[in-house]
């Protein structure tokens, strides 16, 4: 299986975020969806919705033209928008590869790649999540204590995408282990998440972003945030965060 470089996708997602945020008064109003749709229309020769068979969500075909198709039967809006952003990544980064490897870009009803080259599919999923909910936007939302329901409706992302982005963000920024980051993300974004624990996560987030930790060494920051995260087993440890 071919390995792909994620740096190009990260850079494109960041540039896209900069363009989108200019249209909003502040970060918590961010909504990339209209801009994703416009960009696909501009970059492809044909972009339309069609009832795809075999449970496929979307596909990009490159021959004499670039054709992007989204399954019109996708009822859940966040899933549809994620699929659009996923296909946009292929249009921006993978057209020549798809031209020489027809059929590599197909996504099944579970959002999983139904092709042999899943590395490009994973990169497209990564790009889609970053474009819909960039780091700066996610951080602003959590610092403003916005609910997962607000994020789903305003940023048009599924709870699964929100969980992925929280886990990815806090692992890298707060220097937590992957398993701990995922536990915290699940405690916030899962359907049956405890509201008290969600409040605790806001407290954790604020504490971890506190400017007082900036002069500390990476090892000290990691230990401090590890202690904070472990405190989530008792959400009242952050009872001062209303």
CATH-level-2 architecture of the largest domain: Orthogonal Bundle
The name of the CATH topology of the largest domain is Arc Repressor Mutant, subunit A
Order of helices and strands: HHEEEHHEHHHHHHH
* Total helical segments: 11
> In which range does the helix fraction lie?
55-70%
Class by alpha and beta content = alpha+beta
Output the keywords.
alpha+beta; 2 domains; 7% strand; 56% helix; disordered C terminus; single chain; 242 residues; Arc Repressor Mutant, subunit A; four-stranded mixed β-sheet; 11 helices; 4 strands
Topology:
Elements: H1 7-21, H2 33-43, E1 46-50, E2 58-62, E3 66-71, H3 77-93, H4 95-100, E4 106-107, H5 118-132, H6 135-143, H7 148-154, H8 159-173, H9 178-189, H10 195-209, H11 218-230
Parallel strand pairs: 1-3
Antiparallel strand pairs: 2-3, 2-4
Helix pairs in contact: 1-5, 2-3, 3-5, 8-9, 10-11
């Amino acid at each position: 299986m071919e390995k792909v470089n994620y740096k190009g996708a990260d850079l494109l997602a960041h540039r896209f975020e900069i363009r989108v945020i200019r249209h909003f008064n502040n970060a918590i109003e961010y909504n990339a969806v209209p801009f994703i749709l416009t960009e696909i229309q501009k970059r492809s020769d044909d972009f339309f919705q069609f009832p795809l068979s075999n449970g496929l969500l979307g596909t990009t075909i490159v021959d004499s033209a670039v054709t992007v198709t989204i399954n019109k039967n996708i009822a859940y809006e966040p899933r549809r928008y994620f699929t659009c952003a996923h296909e946009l990544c292929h249009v921006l980064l993978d057209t020549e590869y798809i031209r020489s490897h027809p059929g590599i870009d197909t996504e099944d009803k579970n959002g999983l790649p139904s092709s042999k080259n899943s590395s490009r599919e994973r990169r497209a999923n990564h790009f889609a999540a970053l474009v819909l909910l960039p780091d700066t936007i996610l951080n602003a939302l959590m610092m403003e204590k916005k609910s997962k329901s607000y994020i789903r409706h305003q940023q048009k992302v599924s709870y699964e995408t929100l969980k992925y982005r929280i886990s990815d963000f806090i692992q890298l920024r707060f220097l937590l282990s992957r398993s701990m980051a995922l536990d915290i993300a699940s405690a916030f974004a899962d359907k049956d998440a405890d509201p008290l624990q969600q409040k605790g996560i806001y407290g954790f987030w604020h504490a971890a972003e506190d400017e007082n930790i900036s002069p500390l060494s990476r090892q000290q920051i990691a230990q401090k945030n590890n202690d904070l995260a472990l405190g989530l087993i008792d959400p009242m440890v952050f009872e001062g965060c209303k």
